[in-house]
Write a structure and sequence with these properties.
By secondary structure, this protein is mostly helical. It has 6 helices and no strands. Helix 1 packs antiparallel against helix 2, helix 1 crosses helix 5 and helix 5 runs antiparallel to helix 6. The structure holds protoporphyrin IX containing FE.
Length: 132
């Protein structure tokens, strides 16, 4: 309950502009990244940005554009083609945290989002970690 209120307030405080700025900053970081950058299609950064932004607007704001365009998120299935091990998970979260810093996501939304991203990124792991 408390969490739901928090999410509603997050959407009110950040607005579509806040999520758009966050995701744009995130993909600027991803594009430069040696580990996860190469996993993304290099000719569709705008599309990637739109899908993640719309997903977050759906998850936190109830805006249904993502569902209308892509259907049920099925994130685990949609990430099967990409090798997500702990290193990829940690890198994704690190780049997202940098984007949250860059775009000044305020508390308590910063903590709520970070917890959400860390949880989903861990759930998306689909590879054993490479041997030491
Ligand atoms: C754990 C490390 C992760 C890696 C390596 C990764 C990588 C990718 C790649 C390569 C794509 C395909 C490009 C695209 O269609 O945009 C993608 C799509 C997507 N990812 Fe991730 N991702 C990760 C974590 C996450 C997390 C934590 C979330 C959400 C909180 C997320 C949400 C999405 C969404 C919404 C899409 C588009 C799905 C669609 O509609 O096709 N990803 N991801």
């Amino acid at each position: 309950m408390l969490e739901e209120l928090n999410e509603e307030q997050m959407y009110k405080d950040m607005g579509e502009e806040g999520f758009t700025a966050l995701v744009a900053a995130f993909y600027r970081n991803v594009r430069e990244d040696d580990l996860i950058g190469p996993m993304y299609p290099n000719d569709d950064w705008e599309g990637s940005e739109e899908r993640l932004r719309d997903f977050l607007l759906f998850r936190f704001g109830g805006v249904t554009r993502y569902i209308e365009k892509r259907g049920h998120p099925r994130l685990r299935r949609r990430h099967f083609p990409f090798p997500v091990d702990s290193a990829a998970r940690d890198r994704w979260v690190k780049l997202m945290r940098a984007a949250m810093d860059e775009t000044n996501v305020p508390d308590p939304h910063y903590q709520t989002l970070l917890g959400f991203f860390a949880h989903v990124a861990n759930f998306l792991r689909n590879q054993p970690d490479s041997a030491e």
